[in-house]
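ok trying again, last paste got cut off:
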Amino acid sequence: MLFKQQAWLRQKLLVLGSLAIGSLLYLVARVGSLDRLQPLCPIEGRFGAHGQAEFPLRALQFKRGLLHEFRKGNASKEHVRLHDLVQQLPKAIIIGVRKGGTRALLEMLNLHPAVVKASQEIHFFDNDENYAKGIEWYRKKMPFSYPQQITIEKSPAYFITEEVPERIYRMNSSIKLLIIVREPTTRAISDYTQVLEGKERKNKTYYKFEKLAIDPNTCEVNTKYKAVRTSIYTKHLERWLKYFPIEQFHIVDGDRLIAEPLPELQLVEKFLNLPPRISQYNLYFNATRGFYCLRFNIIFNKCLAGSKGRIHPEVDPSVVTKLRKFFHPFNQKFYQITGRTLNWP
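nice, full thing came through this time. structure:
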């Protein structure tokens, strides 16, 4: 009898112990989550000197939970009304450039609790068919957010498409525009590598980079090749400056964002008039991937897709040298216009 009582008691203690451990783990996760979701400015209680309203704690608490349900389409109109959620037009757009790091920049900015990102490229301003659907169609493509949050989208084709600057200007002449750039020759090779991978997946042949980038008749750089044209940043920027002052642009160094992301993100926070919230805690280097991954809180981490960081094919060094020499005067003009000098050869 005594033996049975002892066995029963041990079983009870085991159950209670399991419940205690489970509760402790929940509290640890909860504390980690709430630590991530503290008010943006716990001292001032405001965004800063720009007079925006206090950011409610409940907005931060629901950002990774309730907003996720809206993205999946699992929330009702009543939830929208109760939580004051809206679909806002972007207050900032990452307009380019292709293979400059636009996806990495968008995902990293999403670490900030005041930022909500559109998960897909909308291609509203660069696609005539989409643009004809009107601004309300565009708004409905945006994620649900709180009024105090900033919605950001990215479509890198915007930077090089002629009609886009005027179209964005008509929507919002004071919008903030982000351009992330990489060393032009590296960017062109990365552009080629992505197209090459797509061709190989379909068992199609493709020219070598050297044959596309260099005109065989003149042995000079082939400016008709799109990957080369995209890397002439100053030519595209000059078209945007017909509509927007340079103060509305911020240049992000895509090469530095890969190697040392935090300083670049802090510059973007300042440009967007956001209180500093992204810290080294949110970024950790993944040695296996060779890239920084994102830490939102103690239980939620995220790395970029495996397609990022493709291995580039070997390119004839003489072609690399020719391209860098070609891009050099355009780079110098780009530095002069933007006021930012980058460490490009």
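cool. The chain has a mean pLDDT of 83. Residues 198 and 204 are 9 Å apart (CA to CA).
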